[in-house]
């Protein structure tokens, strides 16, 4: 029943052989040596400092949502860098290869430029997949991981162990795509895959298999994460945190995770069917034997379009937090904002065909999907106006975070308007598969990257207790923006000049000048990467000067700013009682921002566990073994995964309890470390109209009768 | 994590689970899948009838899995499962329905008709 693979296969090693390691490649071989050296240096350094125990205890086995969030962001930044290097290579190839004639670098076997078409194909495929699923997604999931529980006053996610599992499975996916650099090849048919090119007869190598299993792992990790987020927001809100008071970022996380939960399974099914074609010899997506190629495209974008909203909605949520803070005004039109978020999420389900208007299903279907696509513009417009009205007559401070947020708005405008153009079938037929489309979605995805950088700067002091350097944050912003303009304005122009996407050899000499401009833009991006490193270095060096208290910006609004900076591992010494929509702003206005709890309760916390890491490792092995068709290893890895799952579920985790005295001590210490001293007053304050509760009592029911008005 | 005092076994969702339910769901789903595979690989029916038959199998398998394995129904003590169902039905109708529509329009233009399909000339 198994498909017969071309080329050698052995029961022990499957398709794996020494010749699969590209040690003769002039780019990969030195890179491999470099990575091994850097890796060895790192391992040596950690060993010398005796940090393994610390890493294992505090990071690898953690179930703390903040640490997992930091690891997600770290993973996202590393992959962002890898994807950026891919982008740089793509740009360089096109700049070198443009024009007629034989201008290739012979030593590398290229007729045009420096990359062979097969190698070039792998680079753009990996670039797209990495940027969307291993850079943007982990960055956003990481930020949601850190912030959502804090914004709703929870101690952790609803399922801390599941959270760790989601992270390690995603990391396994990242490891799989990274190893494809040095062992075998990666897929060469685009990040979304073209049917039937990914079928065995047209792609006999292991590249497509790497692509399948990487995507499956990431999809699994993200789906598990989305379940966790939804359960957390539904079940773990602090007393008084009604739905009407949920911060907008949390709302956006809810909507995004509903999208993820409902759409990622489509991707998993689509890829499982591709896998069935390649491994079992079925014909779901072949042209003959009853298969249908367009069915693949359909299934893929059934996930793919909701996915793009899964990544943009949290970014919108971040803008919704940053802009009010630095405008010193509450968000304009909270209810409209939340409704718009859900309208976008809802509409994102009925527009997917706009990715293949040119399929040929005729005017009626096209019209429906065209109109539906344009509908997205309405709630998006509502959001943009809400942000604009928030800033209108606000007291705006142009901090680095605000720079990134405003930049995101500009990109959203360009991306949205070009999206509107693309959603008109008559226009789409002209520019589909041209770099105009590529420029469109890069505007959108860069809007996300801008929002993420803004959010990292904005929430950094909450997580680490000190602010990032403002000057370097702005320098990086301007360099990054210059790079964006220089790369993507020419790309829009090239789209109109008829350049199709994914050209390893751009043949038209008229394009040459614009390629040079783009290459210059990439060089400026490189500078912005450097300035990011400087930003981190300078900020960490000067951390004592930038040490902040709970309310790091002095004008922040939502609940996460109530607890200490850096956030203690139990989040809130006492679960706060929520009195208003912008709780921290409300407390500041009424003068009891500094109220500390006067009594403490024991806290129940989950234990660390290495099982999530082990399952990540076995799933990585499974993906690797399936890619290379090493059946015995696949079997063992699968069995080990299932056994670990069952073992852990049967064992459960009783957790541990921190006593009230211990919490009191920890809270006192945390307070002493913070520059802004919290007063020692009782946690009850007064305001015109009654008495408020600052902290929930977490005690028996008869105490509840003493509560002041919960809302007003 | 302040919800640790409750024994997870006492949760109504967990109480609802029963070995019989899971076994029934598993066997039903497996049988339906095996049936569909058999029908297709043995070409037991003419093409269009085959299409309808495996669609019916798929439909029943969905119901079996949703009901027996996921416990999604419209009982009152299970409000979030009902919410999931309410959210799921429109999505199901939209995705399958719109796909159906777009492919029927596509086939009109690009494909020879499947033998046995009504309206074929
Ligand atoms: C106002 C909202 C938007 C509209 C009207 C819109 C419209 C479109 C259309 C019609 C296409 C298909 C172009 C073609 O292939 O011919 C497209 C492609 C794309 N859009 Fe958008 N879009 C919008 C927002 C977004 C957002 C928010 C994102 C991501 C964050 C995004 C990411 C993409 C991607 C990744 C592709 C192309 C994928 C590929 O072909 O590789 N779009 N968009
Ligand atoms: Cu789309």
What can you tell me about this protein's structure?
The complex is a heterodimer of chains A (712) and B (121). Chain A has helices spanning 28-49, 52-60, 65-97, 117-151, 160-179, 207-235, 248-280, 293-327, 334-347, 362-375, 377-391, 400-422, 425-431, 435-464, 470-496, 512-541, 583-589, 611-628, 631-651, 660-673, 701-704, and strands at residues 603-605, 656-658, 684-687, 690-693. Chain A is an all-alpha fold and 712 residues long. Chain A has a domain at 1-323: Cytochrome c oxidase-like, subunit I domain (Cytochrome C Oxidase, Chain A, Up-down Bundle). A two-stranded antiparallel ribbon of chain A has the order 1-2. A two-stranded antiparallel ribbon of chain A has the order 3-4. In chain A, a hairpin with a 2-residue loop joins strand 3 (684-687) and strand 4. The radius of gyration of chain A is 26 Å and the shape is globular. The model of chain A is unreliable at 677-686 and 698-712 (pLDDT under 50). Chain B is mostly helical and 121 residues long. Chain B has one domain (8-110). Chain B is built from 4 helices and no strands. In chain B, helix 2 (19-42) packs antiparallel against helix 3 (47-69). Chain B is elongated. The A-B interface holds A 155-156, 160, 234-235, 258, 262, 266, 292, 294-295, 298, 302, 349-350, 353, 359-362, 364-365, 368, 575, 603-606, 652, 654-655, 698 and B 1-5, 8, 80, 87-88, 91, 94-95, 98-99, 101-103, 105-106, 108-110. The complex binds protoporphyrin IX containing FE (HEM) and copper (II) ion. Protoporphyrin IX containing FE is lined by residues 192, 308, 311-312, 354-355, 373, 376-377, 380, 416, 419-420, 422-423, 428, 432, 437, 440-441, 444-445, 448 of chain A.
């Amino acid at each position: 029943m198994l498909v017969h693979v071309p080329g050698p296969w052995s029961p022990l090693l499957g398709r794996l052989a020494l010749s699969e390691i590209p040690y003769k490649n002039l780019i990969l071989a030195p890179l491999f040596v470099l990575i091994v050296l850097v890796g060895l240096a790192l391992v040596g350094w950690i060993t010398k400092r005796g940090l393994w125990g610390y890493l294992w205890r505090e990071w690898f086995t953690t179930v703390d949502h903040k640490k997992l969030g930091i690891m997600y962001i770290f993973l996202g930044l590393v992959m962002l860098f890898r994807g950026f290097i891919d982008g740089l290579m793509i740009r360089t190839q096109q700049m070198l290869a443009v024009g007629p004639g034989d201008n290739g670098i012979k030593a590398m076997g290229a007729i045009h430029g420096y990359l062979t078409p097969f190698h070039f194909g792998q680079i753009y495929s990996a670039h797209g997949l990495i940027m969307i699923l291993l850079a943007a997604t982990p960055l956003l999931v990481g930020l949601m991981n850190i912030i959502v529980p804090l914004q709703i006053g929870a101690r952790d996610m609803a399922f801390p162990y599941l959270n760790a599992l989601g992270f390690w499975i995603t990391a396994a996916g990242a490891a799989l795509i990274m190893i494809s650099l040095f062992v075998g090849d990666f897929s060469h048919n685009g990040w979304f895959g073209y049917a039937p090119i990914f079928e065995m007869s047209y792609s006999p190598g292991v590249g497509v298999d790497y692509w399948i299993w990487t995507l499956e792992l990431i999809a699994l990790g993200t789906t598990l994460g989305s379940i966790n987020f939804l359960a957390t927001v539904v079940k773990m809100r602090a007393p008084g945190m009604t739905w009407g008071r949920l911060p907008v970022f949390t709302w956006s996380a809810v909507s995004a995770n509903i999208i993820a939960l409902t759409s990622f399974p489509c991707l998993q099914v689509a890829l499982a069917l591709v896998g069935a074609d390649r491994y079992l010899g079925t014909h779901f997506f072949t042209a003959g034997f009853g298969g249908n190629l367009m069915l693949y495209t359909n299934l893929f974008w059934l996930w793919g379009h909701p996915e793009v909203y899964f990544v943009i909605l949290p970014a919108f949520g971040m803008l919704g937090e940053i802009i009010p803070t630095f405008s010193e005004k509450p968000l304009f039109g909270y209810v409209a904002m939340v409704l718009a978020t859900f309208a976008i999420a809802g509409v994102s389900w009925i527009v997917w065909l706009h990715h293949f208007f040119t399929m040929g299903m005729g005017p009626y279907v096209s019209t429906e999907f065209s109109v539906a696509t344009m509908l997205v513009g309405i709630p998006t417009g509502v959001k943009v106006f809400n942000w604009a009205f928030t800033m209108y007559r606000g007291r705006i401070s142009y901090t680095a975070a605000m720079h990134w947020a405003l930049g995101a708005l500009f990109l959203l405008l360009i991306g949205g308007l070009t999206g509107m153009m693309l959603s008109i079938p008559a226009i789409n037929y002209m520019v589909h598969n041209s770099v105009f489309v590529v420029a469109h979605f890069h505007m959108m995805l860069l809007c996300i990257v801008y929002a993420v950088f803004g959010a990292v700067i904005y929430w950094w002091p909450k997580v680490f207790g000190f602010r990032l350097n403002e000057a370097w944050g702005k320098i990086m912003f301007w360099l990054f923006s210059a790079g964006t303009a220089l790369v993507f304005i020419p790309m829009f122009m090239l789209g109109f000049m008829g350049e199709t996407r994914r050209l390893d050899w751009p043949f038209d000499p008229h394009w040459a000048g614009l390629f040079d401009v783009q290459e210059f833009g990439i060089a400026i991006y490189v500078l912005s990467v450097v300035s990011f490193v400087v930003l981190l270095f300078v900020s960490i060096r000067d951390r004592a000067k930038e040490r902040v208290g709970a309310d790091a910006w002095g004008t922040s609004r939502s609940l996460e700013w109530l607890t200490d900076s850096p956030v203690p591992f139990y989040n809130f010494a006492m679960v706060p009682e929520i009195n208003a929509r912008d709780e921290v702003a409300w407390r500041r206005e009424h003068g009891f921002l500094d109220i500390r709890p006067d009594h403490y309760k024991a806290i129940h916390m989950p234990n660390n566990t290495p099982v999530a890491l082990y399952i990540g490792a076995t799933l990585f092995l499974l993906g690797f073994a399936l890619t290379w068709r090493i059946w015995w290893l696949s079997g063992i890895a699968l069995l080990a995964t299932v056994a670990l799952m069952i073992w852990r579920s049967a064992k459960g985790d009783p957790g541990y309890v921190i006593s009230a005295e211990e919490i009191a001590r920890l809270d006192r210490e945390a307070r002493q470390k913070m520059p802004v001293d919290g007063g020692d007053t009782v946690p009850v304050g007064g305001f015109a109209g009654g008495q408020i509760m600052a902290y929930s009592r977490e005690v028996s029911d008869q105490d509840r009768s003493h509560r002041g008005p919960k809302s007003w | 994590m302040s919800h640790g005092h409750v024994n997870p076994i006492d949760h109504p969702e967990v109480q609802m689970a029963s070995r019989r339910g899971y076994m029934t769901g598993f066997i039903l789903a497996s049988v339906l899948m095996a049936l569909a595979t058999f029908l297709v690989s043995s070409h037991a029916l003419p093409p269009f009838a085959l299409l309808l038959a495996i669609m019916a199998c798929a439909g029943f398998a969905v119901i079996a899995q949703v009901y027996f394995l996921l416990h999604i129904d419209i009982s009152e003590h299970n409000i979030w499962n009902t919410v999931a169902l309410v959210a799921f039905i429109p999505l199901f109708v939209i995705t399958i329905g719109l796909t159906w529509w777009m492919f029927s329009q596509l086939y009109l233009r690009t494909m020879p008709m499947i033998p046995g399909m009504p309206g074929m000339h």
